[in-house]
Specification:
Helix content is about 45%, strand content about 10%. The chain has 34 helices and 24 strands. The N and C termini lie far apart (about 100 Å).
Length: about 950
């Protein structure tokens, strides 16, 4: 039986533990001290060194030390083990494991098998921690056939290990535990504050104790709490002590509810106000708040270190995954696009003219929606054949580089390709963003890949690379320890942290208690039967730790409502362990809505950063530029966004574009309709089938720009366009039977015919002008958006103070007057009236071609008249004068649906007016002040 020693909890565990060990300094060399984590071990060694100076310190290990094989020789590596499972899963006949896979996978692909292998590996590791296996699990599970299938799969995997003359890693772990012997000179084991040891380690301790090795278990609790622990110091919910039923030990005043990460970090700083860094302990209960805490404490002068580190090496891993996908399927483009936009690529291939290459790439992707590397290479070569172009030349070289590595990873020996990649990265001194850990891990994988190749395996292109990446643990960079003054301690390390002032940041459900034990393979009934660690025991453990921490520290808890991406967080149930009125008060406290400095959930926070606009003010209408109705529409929407878009040329770019966007789709349809209006025979035909086929053939000619083999998204869009055109053809034939005939299509004003407003040249293209011998003239505009438009609502809005107005409003039947938000079709009407010398205003309307076929049709603006036309022209004249003056301020504050479609929302999440500064902004403000003053003058 181990000897339990209760150290009390009037102080943090670390000083109590250090004092207990130092009282036995003569025996330290013969001790093997077990702590819960590697970080706890580091803290203990530092505390001993600081307290005693030079001494022979004990060996400090974690529970995993007792079942870690002494040598890896002859043991299957993680990569080899994963491949064995993948190979078995892929090779099994359909229907051979009906209980495990009642629905057969569509394709027993490498990716599918890798995902299943990872899940099974987790189950095996969980069982092995308690020396259990699939057969034992089957005995406690109602799904015996399912476990039977897993036993059969495991049997086949073990057979492969035997053929490869390798040992199963889990079998090696169990063998190491069974044969563990104390190192020479070690006479006793001290389990120091380990409330939840791996059961396999406990088995080793019990065996050693039974063989006469003294085992002492140090518990961070007073002796009066002894009924609450088993012989190994694990907290228990027994008859006389139920940790989970004890009331929350912390006063409500010490629990702080905040909005999000920024407020959480600020509150943690306030809690430590007036304290030295060595006096405090910062507990990171919810890891997602680590970056916010690191940033805030570092800015406050306390550089923070997160022992868990940060995810690192992801850029190179993503690039290599893309090469693996490209090697497996060379006819796809998406992996190449990912590679070309990797932040590592300029370092790998050289920065010179790389920006020009990406500019050409953006243009090709936007115009041609390429589906393969070969297609982009073909387009790029064609551009170079037309004229020399530095960007295209550079892009062609980078595409060749991609193709050469695709070939290397797809053919020959993958281990050679991987070794070549490592040599190339090291030769160019490429930073893997993981302090070299990623390149080291890849280098360690090379001999294991060679071993599999020597066995005649890894035949599929790209599989070796995919396997290597799948076998890598998530890499984390843990640099910065040498400069830090405070650690972000994890939950199990807090007892071993030195500071007596404690803040538990992010004490959320799922983190405390730990919610990582949920598993579909190992439900609660199976865990209880096998005596595995389960959610109940984890709840007990964390309840004990919470009580011990509060008893030994001056403690504050901070709970956030949401994380950095707006996902809700719930307070830990340990904060709600109360009854009656107290429980109600705690629930009310933790369900309140705390104030947020951000005001709303944002993808990022601007802080003090501003867009510094140093450009000189350049009026859009400079005497040379022509004005289009679409420019007027953008100006009415927001004059400042208009300036950013049309003067400064700020445009968003969709790097992930896989199908035609709204403009592309519209041009596809417009092109066919334009061709229809220019073919006299087609204009006069009354044959629906002839018209429909003409429109379909014309669209197919334009689609040829995307290559001979259209991608699935493009094929879907092609069919959508065809169905819309088919419905349009029916309606168009009906209009012709009524007497309407098209006289002009795509009439280019400003090129074919000159037209001015207030001396300003206008540029616009009228989709269609029709004539009826009795009804006169009409002007039509084609609309291909997903939803049908109504001309009146597309041009007018209610007057409000939100936007500046440039003329009198139009009377409305009720409410505020109506004002213009678009003058496009009225300007068409004004031109046609003057051009044709008409006494009457021509009719205006839309030809809607939306996704809903029932909405395809001719939608006229029935109450459009001369009064509305005159009003639209007055507004247009005033807008021209405002543009000449350089009036582009203030930005419109967008809300609701408008804000959701703002191209600049991510640039300035709290509004453009708050995000910009500089000489240009001051000039714009000055123009706006002068304009408003002029309008107020009598």
């Amino acid at each position: 039986m181990p000897e339990r020693v209760f150290l009390g909890w009037e102080r943090p565990l670390l000083p109590l533990l250090s004092a207990w060990l130092l009282e036995r300094c003569d025996d330290l060399a013969g001790m093997l001290v077990v702590v819960p984590t590697a970080q706890a071990g580091r803290l203990l060694r530092e505390a001993l060194a600081e307290a005693a100076g030079a001494l022979i310190a004990p060996r400090v290990v974690t529970p995993e030390h007792f079942f870690r094989p002494a040598s890896q020789d002859g043991i299957a590596s993680r990569l080899e083990s994963r491949f064995a499972w993948i190979e078995v899963l892929r090779g099994m006949d359909a229907g051979s494991t009906p209980a495990l896979f009642p629905v057969e996978p569509v394709d027993r692909s490498f990716a599918w098998a890798a995902g299943v292998a990872e899940e099974i590996d987790k189950v095996r590791n969980t069982l092995s921690e308690s020396s259990k296996d699939f057969a034992e699990a089957r005995g406690f599970s109602p799904e015996k056939d399912r476990w039977g299938d897993m036993i059969e799969i495991e049997r086949r995997v073990q057979a492969r290990f035997s053929r490869w003359k390798l040992t199963d890693p889990l079998a090696a772990k169990l063998e190491a535990a069974a044969g563990f012997e104390l190192p020479p000179g070690v006479r006793e084991i001290v389990v120091a504050g380990v409330p939840d040891p791996v059961p396999l380690a406990v088995e080793v301790w019990a065996r050693l104790g039974g063989a006469g090795v003294p085992v002492k278990v140090l518990v961070h609790a007073p002796v009066g709490e002894s009924e609450g622990f088993d012989e190994w110091g694990r907290p228990q919910d027994g008859e006389h002590s139920a940790w989970t039923k004890r009331p929350t030990p912390l006063l409500k005043e010490r629990v702080h509810l905040v909005a999000g990460p920024t407020e959480l970090a600020a509150q943690a700083l306030r809690c430590f106000s007036g304290k030295a860094s060595k006096e405090v302990t910062l507990g990171l209960c919810d890891p997602v708040f680590g970056p916010a805490l690191e940033s805030a404490f570092t800015e406050a002068g306390w550089p923070a270190f997160n022992p868990e580190g940060r995810t690192a090496g992801s850029a190179m891993i993503l690039m290599l995954r893309s090469f693996a996908a490209l090697a497996q399927r060379r006819d796809i483009w998406e992996p190449v696009a990912t590679i070309l936009r990797s932040p590592l690529l300029p370092e790998i291939v050289g920065r010179k003219q790389f920006h020009a290459a990406l500019k050409v790439l953006d243009e090709i992707e936007k115009a041609y929606l390429p589906a393969s590397l070969a297609r982009v290479t073909e387009i790029c070569a064609a551009r170079l054949a037309e004229k020399p172009e530095e960007g295209a030349e550079k892009l062609l070289k980078v595409l060749g580089w991609c193709e050469s590595w695709r070939e290397r990873f797809a053919s020959g020996r993958p281990s050679d390709a991987l070794a070549g990649w490592l040599a190339a990265m090291r030769a160019r001194r490429i930073d893997d963003a993981a302090e070299g850990q990623l390149l080291e891990a890849l280098a360690e994988a090379v001999p294991h890949v060679e071993r599999l190749e020597d066995k005649g395996l890894l035949e599929g292109p790209g599989e070796a690379l995919e396997l290597v990446l799948a076998s890598l643990e998530t890499l984390r960079s843990a640099s910065g320890r040498e400069d830090s003054v405070i650690d972000l301690s994890g939950w199990l390390e807090l007892s071993h942290a030195p500071g007596a002032r404690l803040v538990l940041a992010g004490m959320h459900e799922g983190c405390v208690p730990d919610g990582n034990l949920d598993d579909s393979f190992l439900p609660q009934v199976v865990r209880e039967g096998l005596k595995l660690r389960d959610p109940n025991s984890r709840h007990v453990r964390d309840a004990y730790l919470f009580h011990a921490l509060v008893a030994s520290h001056e403690t504050d808890v901070i709970v956030a409502k949401v994380d950095a991406v707006g996902e809700p967080r719930r307070p830990s149930r340990l904060l709600l362990s109360a009854k009656g009125l107290e429980l109600a008060e705690r629930v009310i406290q933790l369900s309140a809505s705390p104030p947020s400095s951000a005001g709303r959930l944002l993808p990022w926070e601007r802080g003090e950063w501003l867009l510094d606009l140093k450009d000189e003010l350049k009026p859009y209408l400079n005497g040379e530029r022509k004005l289009s109705p679409s420019a007027i529409r953008d100006y009415l929407y927001c004059p400042f966004r208009f300036y950013l878009k049309r003067v400064l040329k700020w445009q968003p770019h969709d790097a992930g574009k896989l199908e035609m966007d709204e403009l592309d789709f519209g041009n596809l349809c417009h092109d066919a309709l334009e061709r229809m209006g220019k073919e006299p025979a087609i204009v006069e035909t009354l044959d629906f089938k002839v018209l429909r086929q003409f429109l379909w053939d014309t669209m197919d000619e334009r689609l040829a720009r995307y290559g001979s083999n259209l991608s699935l998204p493009l094929m879907v869009q092609r069919e959508a366009a065809r169905t819309r055109m088919e419905r349009f053809a029916e309606l168009e034939i009906g209009q012709r039977h009524e007497g309407w005939r098209t006289k002009n299509v795509e009439l280019n004003i400003g090129k074919d015919i000159e037209w001015e407003i207030d001396g300003q040249s206008i540029s616009m293209q009228i989709d269609r002008i029709d004539f009826h011998p009795e009804l006169g003239w009409r002007v039509l505009d084609y609309k291909t958006s997903a939803r049908a438009d109504v001309p009146r609502s597309a041009h007018l809005r209610r007057s409000s103070e939100k936007r500046r107005e440039f003329g009198a409003g139009l009377p409305a039947s009720r409410g505020a007057p109506e004002v213009w938000k678009n003058v496009q079709v009225p300007l068409y009407a004004a031109f046609v009236q003057g051009w044709k010398g008409l006494d009457q205003v021509p009719k205006i309307g839309y030809v809607n071609l939306p996704a809903t076929l029932n909405d395809v049709g001719f939608e006229m603006w029935e109450d459009f008249d001369a009064f509305k036309l005159d009003n639209a022209m007055q507004w247009s004249t005033e807008i021209i004068r405002a543009m000449r003056a350089g009036l582009h301020w203030p930005p419109v504050a967008l809300t609701g649906g408008e804000a959701g479609y703002d191209d600049f929302a991510l640039l300035a999440p709290d509004g453009l007016e708050q995000a910009v500064s500089g000489p240009l902004v001051e000039a714009l403000r000055h123009v706006a002040d002068d304009w408003d003053a002029g309008r107020r003058a009598p």
